[in-house]
Design brief:
Elements lengths: L5 E6 L5 E7 L2 E8 L5 H14 L10 E5 L5 H18 L3 E4 L1 H6 L9 E9 L2 E4 L2 E4 L2 E4 L4 E3 L1 H7 L4 E4 L3 H4 L6
Parallel strand pairs: 1-4, 4-5, 6-11
Antiparallel strand pairs: 1-2, 2-3, 6-7, 7-10, 8-9
């Protein structure tokens, strides 16, 4: 199933590994899972399995995309090293995408509310960014920030959908 535009996307910035395969702008498959072994041991195996299940090889790829963080430093570093190795080795373009953009993207065009992805920054803080709908796309309202969970509520533009792995840390401080 070779395609003229085949994209492999990798996100290893939060508590699980996510892979996606898209052809000509349409999602073929996405896989998510918590790793029982370090991602440095399984990333290449998971990518190979995803491609194999669709009759594809690394050489069929046209582009590689990878999350840039914020998030787990080790997870980001492993994913970046793998993506850079594949893209350099095959002469493919490499696209870096901020993690919070990835989390907000599925909400494009689904609501008129602001979108606020939140992830655990550890050490008692969360990373967050806010997005608004503009011209059929999501646009960031500012830079990614790290704040204490109790400070998030006062920074939110409303109405807002708050989502992501850091929501449970902020939930006691959020009201409708």
């Amino acid at each position: 199933m070779a395609s003229s535009e085949l994209l492999l996307a990798i996100d290893n910035s939060i508590d699980f590994l996510s892979l996606a395969l898209a052809a000509d702008g349409s999602l073929i498959e996405e896989r998510h899972g918590r790793a029982v072994r370090p991602s440095s041991e399984i990333l290449s195996l998971k990518v190979a399995a995803l491609l194999h299940d669709h009759g594809l090889h690394l050489s069929d790829l046209s582009m590689v995309a990878v999350s840039l963080g914020p998030g787990s430093f080790t997870g980001i570093r492993v994913a970046l090293a793998y993506a850079k190795g594949v893209s350099t080795g095959l002469g493919l373009p490499l696209l870096g995408v901020p993690t919070l953009d990835l989390l907000a993207w599925p909400f494009t065009g689904t609501t008129s509310s602001y979108i606020c992805p939140v992830i655990d920054a550890k050490k008692g803080e969360v990373f967050f960014a806010q997005y608004r709908h503009e011209g059929g796309a999501l646009r960031s309202t500012g830079e990614c920030q790290a704040v204490k969970p109790e400070e998030l509520a006062e920074r939110l533009l409303r109405p807002c959908i708050v989502l992501g792995t850091g929501v449970s840390l902020c939930e006691p401080f959020l009201t409708e």
